[in-house]
Amino acid sequence: MMKHVLGLFMVLSLVVITACGGGTQMTANSTKEATTSAAQAAEDPKADWPEVLRLGVLPGEEEGKMSRGNQKFVDDLGAALGIKTELFVGDDYTAVIEAMRTKKIDIASFGPFSYIIANERSGALPLAVKATSKEAAYYHSLVVVPKDSSAEKIEDLKGKTFLFADPASTSGHLFPRAKIIETLGITNDEVETYFSNVSFSGGHDKSILAIAKGTADGAGVCDSCVQRVVDAGLIKQDDFKVIAKSDPIPSSPLTYRSDLPADLVEEIKAFIFEYHKQNSEFFKEGTQQYFPVEDNDYQVVRDTAKALNMSPEELLK
After folding, report:
1. pLDDT (average), residues 189-194
2. Does the pTM of the predicted model rise above 0.70?
3. Given CB 3.0 to 4.6 Å as the disulfide criterion, which of 96, 135, 182, 280 pairs with 90?
4. Looking at the 3D structure of the chain, how many domains does it have?
5. Buried b vs exposed e over 175-201: b needs ≥16 C-beta within 10 Å?
């Protein structure tokens, strides 16, 4: 019995000594690792930055004559930050949102509603908007018809074909749908049955081109998107008619992934808020620049989506 007790005592003593020694060693190792990390951070403050910073853009923003100089922007940003940068062009809104969720891109240009979805799904946060002033950082959704259409108002499109741009588009879906519902006094579910056919074109540029060619009777598009197509010489101003216009919509934000290092985000901000001095061609007519924007600036978009019961799960499934 005594021999058994002594054996048990020796085992317990060994466990205590090992635990104490191990704890001391672990603490020492942790301290050493922390010191090493701190030293590395001091030597290279960009140690926790991504090796490649990628910018994602939406369809229609980087196509031939319609390019807004995104590649030049990406190159200049990389030069300013001292790291490699790349441009990612998504096939549609969902592709850009998913790319941010899976950390394939770090910053992205979103429409207001696609930003709301990206905020919920991908942790996107707004950085800035392009505008001539903070007060002018708004645009409108238009309902347009071909130039020779007999339609003068939304009511005249009953039984006709109608195009939205993309399910996650603000001015190409959310707001024109809300305008249709408000004007006609119908429910959201009745929109599809009011027209003979409702479909998504895949982008504002595709919608306005279809209207100009007369292959669709009506479409919801953004005013600035249409102007870009006109400026690119793809259509003429008199190839279409505007029969309805939305209330002001907060402009599309440039966003960043919320888990990016804080010092990197600050350097990105420092670059974009001075970029108009470096490359005025990136901004419309050289009169625009980037202005700060916050998440609560897009509450009107959230409220509109909620009123229409348009959730990310329904739109991106």
Report:
1. 96
2. yes
3. 96
4. 2
5. bbbbbbbeeeeeeeeebeebbeebebb
